[in-house]
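Kindly inspect this one:
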Amino acid sequence: MTTTTNDNEKRLKWHKAYETGIERIDFEHKVFLELINSFCYAINNQLAAKDLSRLISEIEKYAEFHFISEENFMRRINYPDYNKHQKDHFELLEYLNLYKHKAEDFGQYARFLHQWFVNHTIHEDIKIKTFIQENNIDVDQYYYNLNISK
């Protein structure tokens, strides 16, 4: 089982291009990104395969939580591409579930997650931001900003 690759030494840093302008979604994306980075760190530090598998499960569970959260918001604002977006989420969850049962190359898994996160965030999630701006939607009206101390 391969557990190290040079590609995983790079931390994916939060970038303005990932911002949707929706505080809660951006916060959840930052957590998701940090989980992916933690997985890469674990690979580079050669954690045991069983520990890496646990991290995969954590990523899978967090992704499921985040997708439910994001999809609920999209439904509330009547987002027109909801079905396609939900399908993208489902496909990732399906991949994560399948992969955790036959992980052979954790580095490949990490590269896939990095690529998926960047592509989905800047090409799909950004469309939510555009829809909100074009339709003058008040996000606060949908109780979707975080009300936690900063």
Summary: Helices lie at 23-44, 49-76, 82-101, 106-134.
